Each structure stands twice: as structure tokens, then as C-alpha cells.
């Protein structure tokens, strides 16, 4: 902490450090929270760990923070092994799900707390705390106590506090979960903006797929203590590696299909398949609702892809329409609301699939 | 619907009258109860002061002789000093023992919560007489190892008193710890670079100041009023000396009792102002 007078703007050019989790294991009694997790976060990268509760994502973050001890494996920051280092020596900024501001301190004092522990003089401390509060847009609230601020403001102060110590890694443990929907979206984008500005290596843990897909450079989907897939948001969404990912991220229709080489026969329609699908034979194609189109049927035509609309739900810009295909089950289609008008309940529609590759899994 | 509307429009005056009457009745009842309880507490106290300022009986001339005697008698002064010292040592040692233990149990050993609670509340269920039977042999050894110039000083009772105040202290601290998110605050402070001592001193303590003071006050009050253990172990603390003086002069005893009661009242009164310095709660709007 000798470069105390480096202005914040200069930090944007500072490259983050690489973080490697190697074969991390953690056991709670009979429950395996982490089952050999390997994850490399590139310098300055923003990775979101996504998964249902109990999948081990929070455990992974807490092991990286040093708040829990690993039963096996290593945590590497840069080329340093920090596996046995206590939390307060790891130099990691952290934002928690629960409101974590110290209630007896003002916003400014909260942000300056870490600097005070690093024996930085009062003037310098206050200047840097002021800069950090400005970075999160809360200069006007600097002298307020936590109970005088809204939840979103408290989390922004917590972010400023975490960044004030110029940590090597930023850890975000579901920081948006306690907030309401509108504030959540704003703060989510703000976190990303600040992260890009500071250029810090970041691990973000969430159970909300929208959050993860919106801000991360790469998304890691976890299940039962293992990483199911790690990739850019678009890849995780459109080319799920496993049935779990396909079903957890976004909505999917399960439609009977037969794989034949690189295409699948989905109720008579030919659709390309993702390489990780079953090689051949019967299975279920996992088709996104937005890859399903509907055509109005007025001539009384029939077939496996023709069915009756049984429900429509209006979601604002888009609408979802449920079509009953009889023996093949229900299919959900999503389309712009402007095009959904012709498919009221009881009308008959023909289902078509866009030529996006789909994942076919064993039944 | 029409019936409902008429009832709604005609009802309020009748309702308001009834409500005002019941509110008045409630206020009167409350005032009567308050006066009764105030008398219940004030009469004995005033009687103490009245009695301690009369020379021989209730018709005798006023005098402050008994009160002056408190400051003059060396035995009383020593006992007073020792008891105050004992109260201080007991509160500090019990706090230093309990607070870190309870925080640690909350953070790292939540399964032990019940065990620690049981252990801390245990002294409450064992009569002082029974405790003394167990402590007597230990205090023989303590007396044996006490340096000669402190011989028979009641300050060594601190060992016993730390145990006696535990249940009260535990309850108060437990309430204080429950009112803050100890785990998150500690983890936040740790991630910012704070060691365990800093976490305790700069984060946990300031946020449960009133609970800590409460706990300290309870143990001060308990130690200043303790008689059984001191008497049975043959140490002269304030209450034991008061009892001895009563054999000679009841006036001095009464004055002493009034003084120690008022001392605790002042402490309690002062405490009710601590922890209220925060500005009023304001809910800010999200911009």
C-alpha cells in the first residue's frame, strides 16, 4: 500500500490478477458442497457463477475469500498460493447478500474503514473514500448512516468500501438478492460499469440467470458441487453443454425427437443438433420458446405439428403462447406481442422451428 | 348497500363518543396504576431517608450524623472501596470472558449455542449456599496463596462473582448480539483486513454498546448487593459490614442502604440515556 497517491483513474489501466481454483473440495458432514472445482478467472475478467441453491457456488466464493477452509485443492491468486491464508490477509473486496455496512459509522467512515486498518492518514483516507463514493454516485450521502439509506444505496456503499482497499479480487455474493426488481437491474449495470472502470478480476455468485447473463464475461453454471459449463453468456444460453444447463438457463420445451447424424427429426421437422447431444436414436429435443414460431391454420389441416392454442400470457414486449400438440405434449412459443394477436385461446396453429441447433437428450 | 351507507354515516358520532370515553378511562386507569407503583417504590426509599436523618426516633431532631459516619468509619470506607473495586473487576473479567466466547460460538460453533447457554444459566439454578459448599475448599487455597498485605481482602471474591453474574450477563449480551448481524459484520470487517481483535473492538462492541453496559450494570448491582457468599466465606464486603454495623447503630445501616440504593438508581438512570444518541430513523428514497 505504498502507491497511496495513485489516482483512481490510473487504476483503470492496472491489469487485474489471474485467479485459479484447483480441484477445490468442501464437505459438510455427508453433504458434498464442492466436488473438485476447477476454475480459472483471467485477469480483469468478470465471471458469474450461476446455479440453484445448494449447488456450491457460494461455497466456492467463500473458499476464495478464505471465510471457509477447503478440504482439498488449492486457491491461487496470481502465482501465490493463498489456500492457507486467513481472510484478512487475502486482500479481497467483498459485497454480501445481507446488508453489511457497519451501523455505527457513516457511509464515508465505512468506506474508509479498510484504509484506516492499512494505517493511511486521515486526509488521504477521506479523499479516497470520497472518490469511491463518487464512483458509485453517492457523494451526497457520504455522511449518512446505513439506516438512513435505502437498500440499493447501502449495497453501493458496500461496493465502494470493498473497492477502496484496492483489492486484488472483487467477490460479489448475491449482492442484489435483497433488492427489488427495478433497483436490482440498475445496480447490476452499475456494478458492471464500475468493474470495467477499475479493471478488477471479479467473481459474482447468483441464482438469477438474467443477472448472470447480463453482466458477466463468462458464466459458470454449477450443479451439485461441479461446474457443468463455463462460457460466454450467449454460448451458455444457445449451446448448453448438458441437459441441466439447458433446463436451468432459460425455459426449454421438451419435444420427442429422433437424432440422425447432425440433424434431428422433431415431429417431422429437421433441426440441426448441438454436438454434445446423444449420437443417435430416440430422445428429447430441448427447444427454446423463442426458437418456436407459429403459423395460423385456417384450412383445417392436421399433422403432428398442428395443435390448439390453450393459453397466452402477455409479458410486455413479448408474449408466450402454449400450444397443445396432443401426444407430443405442450409446446411454449415466444414472440413479439405485436405478432401474437392472431393466436388467441382456442385458435389452431402450426408449430415451426427456427434452424437454431438444439440439444437432444436421452429421455 | 344503502343500509350500510346510512349506518356508516350515522355511526361515527356515537362511536367517537364511546371511543373518547374508553380512552379517558384508559388514561385514568394508567395514571392510578402509575401512582400506586410509584408509591410502592418511593415510600420505603423516603422512609429510609427520613429514618436516617433523625437522631433517635421519628420524633427526634434532624441530624446528618449517620450519613457523616459513612464517610468517617474506616471499616465502612474500606468495605465500600473494596465492593466498588470488586464490582468493577467482576464486570470487566466476566465481559472479557463472555463476549468473545459468545461471538465465537455464534460465528464458528453454532452447535454449541445451547450448551454455552445452559452453562451460563446454571449458576441461577444452584442456591448460593450450595455453591459456597463447593467453593469453600477452593477459597482455603486462595487464602493460602494471597500475599500477606492483601490478606482477608474481599477482592478475591471476584472469582466467585464472575460465576454468579454470568446468567444475567449472558441474557443481556445474547439480546445485544441477536440485534445485529454478527456474522456478516465480522466477515465484512475481516475481508477489509481486520484481525479478530479489531473485529471485536471496532465493529462488534460499538454496535452493542448498550447491551454491554446493561450487562455491566447488572453485575455491578448484583455485586454491590451480594451478602450470602461473602458472609459464608468470611469476607467483609459492603453488605456484610452493613450487617455488622446494624448491630451497633441501625441509623448508619439505614443511611448506607439508602446510599447504595441511590447509587444503583443513578447508574440505571444514566444507562437509559446511553445508546440513544443516534439520529432519528430516516428512510431514504432510492434516487
TrEMBL record, chain A:
The keyword Metal-binding does not apply. Transmembrane segments: none annotated. Residues 19-249 form the ABC transporter domain. Keywords: ATP-binding, Nucleotide-binding, Transport. GO terms for molecular function: ATP binding. This is ABC transporter ATP-binding protein. It comes from Kineosporia mesophila.
Automatic annotation (TrEMBL), chain B:
Pfam families: BPD_transp_1. The chain crosses the membrane at residues 31-49, 84-107, 119-142, 154-170, 211-233, 253-274. It is a multi-pass membrane protein. Residues 80-275 form the ABC transmembrane type-1 domain. Its main location: membrane. It is found in: Cell inner membrane; Cell membrane. Keywords: Cell inner membrane, Cell membrane, Membrane, Transmembrane, Transmembrane helix, Transport. Signal peptide: none annotated. Gene3D superfamilies: MetI-like (1.10.3720.10). Belongs to the binding-protein-dependent transport system permease family. This is ABC transporter permease subunit. The lineage of its organism: Bacteria, Bacillati, Actinomycetota, Actinomycetes, Kineosporiales.
Amino acid at each position: 500500500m505504498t502507491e497511496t497517491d495513485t489516482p483512481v483513474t490510473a487504476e483503470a489501466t492496472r491489469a487485474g490478477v489471474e485467479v485459479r481454483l484447483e480441484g477445490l473440495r468442501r464437505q459438510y458432514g455427508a453433504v458434498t458442497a464442492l466436488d473438485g472445482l476447477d476454475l480459472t478467472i483471467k485477469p480483469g475478467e468478470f465471471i458469474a457463477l450461476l446455479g440453484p441453491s445448494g449447488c456450491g457456488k457460494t461455497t466456492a466464493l467463500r473458499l476464495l475469500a478464505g471465510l471457509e477452509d477447503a478440504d482439498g485443492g488449492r486457491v491461487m491468486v496470481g502465482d501465490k498460493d493463498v489456500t492457507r491464508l486467513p481472510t484478512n490477509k487475502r486482500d479481497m473486496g467483498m459485497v454480501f447478500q445481507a446488508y453489511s455496512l457497519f451501523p455505527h459509522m457513516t457511509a464515508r467512515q465505512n468506506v474508509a474503514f479498510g484504509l484506516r486498518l492499512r494505517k493511511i492518514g486521515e486526509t488521504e483516507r477521506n479523499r479516497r473514500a470520497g472518490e469511491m463514493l463518487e464512483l458509485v454516485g453517492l457523494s451526497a450521502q457520504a455522511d449518512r448512516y446505513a439506516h438512513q439509506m435505502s437498500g440499493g444505496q447501502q449495497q453501493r456503499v458496500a461496493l465502494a468500501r470493498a473497492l477502496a482497499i484496492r483489492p486484488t479480487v472483487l467477490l460479489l455474493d448475491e449482492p442484489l438478492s435483497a433488492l427489488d426488481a427495478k433497483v436490482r437491474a440498475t445496480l447490476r449495470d452499475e456494478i458492471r460499469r464500475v468493474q470495467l472502470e477499475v479493471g478488477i478480476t471479479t467473481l459474482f455468485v447468483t441464482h438469477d440467470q438474467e443477472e448472470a447473463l447480463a453482466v458477466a464475461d463468462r458464466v459458470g453454471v454449477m450443479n451439485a458441487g461441479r461446474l457443468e459449463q463455463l462460457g460466454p453468456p450467449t454460448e451458455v444460453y444457445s449451446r448448453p453443454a448438458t441437459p441441466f444447463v439447458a433446463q436451468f438457463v432459460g425455459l426449454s420445451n421438451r419435444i420427442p425427437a429422433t437424432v440422425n447424424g447432425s440433424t434431428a427429426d422433431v415431429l417431422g421437422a429437421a433441426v440441426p443438433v448441438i454436438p454434445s447431444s446423444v449420437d443417435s436414436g430416440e430422445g428429447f429435443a430441448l427447444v427454446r420458446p423463442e426458437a418456436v414460431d407459429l403459423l395460423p391454420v385456417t384450412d383445417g389441416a392436421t399433422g403432428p405439428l398442428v395443435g390448439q392454442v390453450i393459453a397466452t400470457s402477455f409479458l410486455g414486449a413479448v408474449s408466450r403462447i402454449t400450444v397443445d400438440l396432443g401426444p407430443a405434449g405442450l409446446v411454449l412459443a415466444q414472440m413479439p406481442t405485436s405478432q401474437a394477436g392472431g393466436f388467441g385461446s382456442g385458435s389452431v396453429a402450426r408449430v415451426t422451428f427456427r434452424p437454431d441447433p438444439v440439444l437432444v437428450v436421452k429421455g | 348497500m344503502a343500509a350500510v351507507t346510512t349506518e356508516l354515516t350515522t355511526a361515527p358520532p356515537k362511536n367517537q363518543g364511546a371511543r373518547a370515553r374508553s380512552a379517558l378511562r384508559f388514561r385514568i386507569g394508567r395514571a392510578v396504576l402509575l401512582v400506586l407503583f410509584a408509591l410502592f417504590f418511593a415510600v420505603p426509599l423516603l422512609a429510609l431517608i427520613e429514618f436516617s436523618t433523625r437522631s433517635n426516633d421519628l420524633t427526634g431532631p434532624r441530624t446528618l450524623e449517620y450519613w457523616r459516619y459513612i464517610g468517617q468509619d474506616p471499616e465502612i470506607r474500606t468495605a465500600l472501596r473494596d465492593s466498588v473495586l470488586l464490582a468493577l473487576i467482576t464486570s470487566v473479567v466476566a465481559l472479557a470472558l463472555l463476549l468473545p466466547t459468545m461471538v465465537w460460538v455464534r460465528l464458528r460453533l453454532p452447535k454449541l449455542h445451547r450448551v454455552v447457554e445452559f452453562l451460563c444459566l446454571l449458576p441461577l439454578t444452584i442456591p448460593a449456599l450450595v455453591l459456597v459448599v463447593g467453593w469453600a475448599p477452593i477459597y482455603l487455597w486462595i487464602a493460602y496463596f494471597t500475599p500477606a498485605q492483601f490478606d482477608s481482602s474481599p477482592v478475591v471474591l471476584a472469582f466467585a462473582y464472575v460465576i454468579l453474574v454470568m446468567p444475567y450477563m449472558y441474557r443481556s449480551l445474547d439480546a445485544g448480539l441477536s440485534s445485529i448481524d454478527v456474522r456478516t459484520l465480522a466477515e465484512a470487517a475481516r475481508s477489509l483486513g481486520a484481525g479478530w481483535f479489531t473485529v471485536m473492538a471496532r465493529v462488534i462492541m460499538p454496535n452493542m454498546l448498550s447491551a454491554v453496559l446493561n450487562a455491566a450494570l447488572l453485575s455491578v448491582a448484583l455485586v454491590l448487593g451480594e451478602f450470602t457468599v461473602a458472609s459464608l466465606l468470611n469476607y467483609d464486603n459492603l453488605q456484610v459490614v452493613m450487617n455488622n454495623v446494624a448491630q451497633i447503630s441501625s441509623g448508619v445501616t439505614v443511611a448506607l442502604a439508602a446510599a447504595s440504593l441511590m447509587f444503583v438508581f443513578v447508574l440505571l438512570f444514566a444507562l437509559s440515556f446511553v445508546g440513544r444518541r443516534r439520529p432519528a430513523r430516516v428512510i431514504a428514497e432510492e434516487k
